[in-house]
Design a protein that fits this description.
It comes from Microbulbifer epialgicus. This is Transposase. The protein is mostly helical. The chain is built from four helices and two strands, in the order H-H-H-E-E-H.
Length: about 100
């Protein structure tokens, strides 16, 4: 079956009061194929719609030579933090 035939079935179905399953049974159509063509023919996005994009500049995180913080654990291990990115992630890690 070609696209024009499916378009015809979709138009007739939309004017009917039947469910998709009942319509496909009545017209001896494959239900899965009907669903595929129904979606393809009714959910097309208009060509004239242009999404609005906003340019975003992402700067790489800068490491500093200064210590922003030190975590000292009871076993003697120390974690020296010199990255602002790592510093912002620490509160979430403490909740684990």
């Amino acid at each position: 079956m070609n696209q024009q035939q499916w378009q015809s079935h979709v138009r007739v179905y939309e004017k009917s009061s039947q469910s998709k399953r009942a319509y496909t049974r009545k017209h001896n159509l494959n239900y899965s194929q009907f669903l595929y063509w129904y979606r393809k023919l009714t959910e097309q996005t208009p060509v004239s719609v242009t999404p609005n994009f906003v340019p975003v500049v992402i700067k790489p995180p800068t490491a500093t030579t200064e210590n922003l913080g030190i975590l000292a654990f009871p076993n003697g291990i120390k974690l020296v933090i010199n990255s602002p990115v790592l510093l912002t992630q620490i509160p979430g890690l403490l909740d684990l």
